[in-house]
TrEMBL record:
Keywords, sorted A to Z: Oxidoreductase
Database matches in PROSITE patterns: ADH_SHORT
Alphabetical list of CDD domains matching this protein: SDR_c
Lineage, top ranks: Bacteria, Pseudomonadati, Bacteroidota, Flavobacteriia, Flavobacteriales
Family: Belongs to the short-chain dehydrogenases/reductases (SDR) family.
UniProt-recorded name of the protein: SDR family oxidoreductase
Pfam families given in the database record: adh_short
Keyword Membrane: no
Record's GO cellular component terms: membrane
Superkingdom of origin organism: Bacteria
GO molecular function: oxidoreductase activity
Length: 229
C-alpha cells in the first residue's frame, strides 16, 4: 500500500486519480475546497484507506493542516500537485485578483506544500506537478492564457530546480505537461472545445507515472498530449 496525496480531487482529473489509486488499494488523502465531492470518494475506499481535507490551497495557514492530517504516515510515496485554475481572458483584461489567485494556486500552493511536507518525503518519494503543454518552452501558445501558462511554467522551473537541490535525499520531483482533457476546467475556459482525452485516461497515465516515474526521472517535464505539438 502506497501513501498518496492528491490536491484538486473534487472533480476532473484529480477525482479520477483518487478513484484509481483507491482501486489499487493505496492509502489516499484528497484535498479541495468542495468537501461534499471529496466525501463521495469514500464510496470507493475500504476502512482506513481514505481521508480528505476541505481547505483552500491559496491560504498558507490552511495548507498547514495537511501535515497534521498525515501525522500517522511514515512517508509520502506520491504527492500530486494537481489543483489548478485556468483563466482564459485577454491580456488587457487580466486583473490583479486574477494574477494573485492564479499564482497562488498554480505556483505558490505547490511550493508551500512541498516545503511543508519535507519531513515526510524519502529518497523514493515522488512529487508530480501537474502542468500544461502551454508551460513548455517552444510549445504552441493560446491567446488568453497569459496568467495560466506563466504561473504553470513557474512550477515547471521549480520542478527542475528542486530536483537538483533535493537530489541527495529526495523527493524526486517531475512535472507532467498535459494536453487538452475533457474536464469542467476545459469546458469553462474553452466552451464547446472537444478534447481527445478523457479524465480517466489521463488519470491512468498519472497513476503509473506517480508510482513508477521516480525510478527513471528527476527534474523532467513529461509531455502527455495528443492534441498540441
Ligand atoms: N483539463 C485540461 O485540459 C488540462 C490541460 C492541461 C493541464 N491541466 C491541469 O490539470 C490539473 C487538473 O485539471 P482539471 O481539468 O481536472 O481541473 P478542474 O476540473 O477545474 O479541477 C481543478 C481542481 O482544483 C481544485 N482547486 C482549485 N482551486 C483550489 C483551491 N484554491 N484550493 C483547493 N483546491 C482547489 C478544485 O477543487 P475545489 O473547487 O473543490 O476547490 C478541483 O478539484 C490542473 O492543474 C490543470 O491546470 C488540465
Amino acid at each position: 500500500m502506497k501513501n498518496i496525496i492528491i490536491t484538486g480531487a473534487s472533480r476532473g482529473i484529480g477525482y479520477e486519480l483518487a478513484k484509481q489509486h483507491l482501486a489499487l488499494g493505496n492509502r489516499v488523502l484528497t484535498i479541495s475546497r468542495n468537501v461534499e465531492k471529496l466525501k463521495e470518494l469514500a464510496a470507493f475506499a475500504k476502512e482506513g484507506q481514505y481521508d480528505f481535507l476541505g481547505i483552500d490551497l491559496t491560504d498558507f495557514n490552511q495548507i498547514d493542516a495537511v501535515l497534521k492530517a498525515i501525522d500517522s504516515w511514515d512517508q509520502i510515496d506520491v504527492l500530486y500537485n494537481n489543483a489548478g485554475l485556468c483563466i482564459n481572458k485577454s491580456f488587457e483584461d487580466i486583473t490583479e485578483e486574477d494574477l494573485l489567485r492564479s499564482w497562488k494556486i498554480n505556483f505558490m500552493a505547490p511550493y508551500r506544500l512541498i516545503q511543508l511536507l519535507m519531513p515526510k518525503f524519502k529518497s523514493c518519494s515522488h512529487v508530480v506537478n501537474v502542468s500544461t503543454m502551454g508551460a513548455v518552452q517552444g510549445s504552441v501558445k493560446f491567446p488568453g492564457l497569459s496568467v495560466y501558462s506563466s504561473s504553470k511554467s513557474a512550477t515547471v522551473n521549480l520542478t527542475e530546480l528542486l530536483a537538483e537541490e533535493l537530489k541527495d535525499h529526495g523527493p524526486r520531483i517531475n512535472a507532467v505537461a498535459l494536453g487538452a482533457v475533457q474536464t469542467e476546467m476545459l469546458d469553462e475556459a474553452f466552451p464547446g472545445y472537444i478534447a481527445p482525452t478523457q479524465p480517466d485516461e489521463m488519470a491512468e497515465y498519472l497513476v503509473d507515472f506517480g508510482l513508477n516515474g521516480w525510478k527513471y526521472f528527476n527534474g523532467k517535464i513529461q509531455q502527455a498530449s495528443i492534441s498540441t505539438p
